[in-house]
Amino acid sequence: MPAPALSFWQRHELKFYRYGHIYASIYGQAVIDYVPQRPMRPILKKLSIVYGHVLSLLLILVLPCYFGYHYQELTKTRDHRMQLLLYVSFSNTLIKLATVIVTYIANTVHFKAINHRCTLLRQRLEALFARSLCRSSRNRRRFEFFMYFKFCLINLMMIIQACGICALRGESWLRMLFAIYGFVLWNYTENMADYFYWISHSVLKYHRQLNVQLRTVSRQFRKLGALPRGGMLPHHCCRLCDRLALLRERFIEINALHEESLEMHQFQLLGLMLTTLINNLTNLFTLFNMLSKQSLEEISYPVLIYILYALGFYIDTYIVTLVNENIKEEMEHIALTVRRFTEQATLDVRLDQEIEHFSLQLLQWRQPYLCGLLHLDRRLVYLINVTAFSYFITLVQFDLYLGSANKV
């Protein structure tokens, strides 16, 4: 039987990961190595780490002091609406800076955990599920689609932001430099967010594969119930028990990967949520500022580009929360599959004990909290958007008040 043809992702997967590692290293995050293919030379590794520390300290300490010193020049304008927009944009950059500081500290503290435990545990699980993934084309295609989608979305947002920086050519060089600084801060935090998204989606893929294997074991278990007692039945039950114990160990490893990844990145993710809140507010008010200067029949090209950027930023945050919600749903599907084992008649004491252990593992699982405050799911994105819209209404009212005060 001929081997199935490899998909485009399977043929070029390592190239995508190598591109991600190089791109992260440019922004001083050599710790992000999706699939280590060959060890770096010790001297290159040390230089990469030193470069990352120097760049991070430059972004965290030197440049904020410089822009803080020129704060008046950055926000100086005669247009009251433009000045309000500059204040909001400045606050947006401050939130990005806070997220970068948290990311830098977390990367330094969890360097070995990210580079060794998470990445290597993910590689081990990938090797264990690789064969079953080839047979389950649906799960593989879903994983590949979201990887393509995330890759194209991030690169599209980079291009849009680069075009926005080029559009500032007529502005002062200080504002253009500040826009470049904000772009670099966004890329710095986005690299770690992409790594967390990749780990989370890998966890979702492994849970789906685990559920497929559990269903196969469940069908075998039902067939054993039709066999006569004695004979080869104890032998088959013993093999089935060993298989179920192996799947339970993989279930524990998958959850450990997800929990450790979320624990390491929880403060960065909280910063990302705050950044999303301020970004949505900034995007809404920027669009309001653009549309207020022209009619709907004369919508300009920059307005359409900015709408595309605002939509892309929202989708980027939404899919991160969507993956975590899908993990919760897949855990419910696994619990339902394991429950089917308990509906069958008792065949072997050891097998019943293993089913009970698996059920206890599922009962002990709890959806992780983000910094002990909230769940990372779609409800969080809804709350962020509602809050951003409320602040946007407040800004519009303040803008109208300033306009009427200037007329008086």
Write structural notes for this entry.
It is found in: Cell membrane. Belongs to the insect chemoreceptor superfamily. Gustatory receptor (GR) family. This protein has 408 residues and is mainly alpha-helical. The chain has one domain. It is built from eleven helices and two strands, in the order ααααααααααββα. Strands 1-2 form a two-stranded antiparallel sheet. The termini are far apart. The mean pLDDT is 79.
Task: Please write out the topology.
Blueprint: H1 8-26, H2 42-69, H3 71-74, H4 80-109, H5 111-135, H6 137-166, H7 173-225, H8 233-291, H9 301-342, H10 349-364, E1 369-370, E2 374-375, H11 378-407
Antiparallel strand pairs: 1-2
Q: TL;DR?
A:
The chain is mostly helical. The protein has eleven helices and two strands.
Low-pLDDT segments, ≥5 res = none
Provide the domain count.
1
Question: Quick one: biggest sheet?
Answer: 2 strands, antiparallel
Q: Strand percentage, roughly?
A: under 5%
Distance between the termini: 84 Å
**Main sheet: strand order:** 1-2
Overall strand count: 2
Oligomer: single chain
Which terms would index this structure?
408 residues, mainly alpha, two-stranded antiparallel sheet, 82% helix
